[in-house]
Amino acid sequence: MLSAEHRSASGAGPLALELANVESAPYLRLASAPNTSELAPHDPLPEQILVFLGQSSEPRTAESIRSSLQVRNQRLVEALRQLVEQHKIVRLPQGYVLASSTLPLSSSSPRVAPR
After folding, report:
1. At 56, is the pLDDT very low, low, confident or very high (cuts 50, 70, 90)?
2. How many whole angstroms from its chain centre is CA 10?
3. What is the value of pTM for the model shown?
4. Of 15, 34, 89, 110, which shows the fewest CB atoms inside 10 Å?
């Protein structure tokens, strides 16, 4: 499998390669046309964020999440916004927590929308 990602563009998704062996020299070529189910690859990042926040006992900043999961900031921010819109996580002034988290929320720490 070949996976490519560019800083300013979405990843092309994994591409299946096969080794072609001809008389001149072996080379790699695309294995076959992708199925329609393979055209829209599933992004595991939102699930990784949920697992990471579930293992944390305190709110985590976007920078600490990005550093731990080793992802580009743009992808992380998009995934965080998606999870906030789906009400799966909450952004507090101290960082992000799971929406189902039992962290005590005082009236002095209002919920904040993602930037």
Report:
1. very high
2. 12
3. 0.56
4. 110
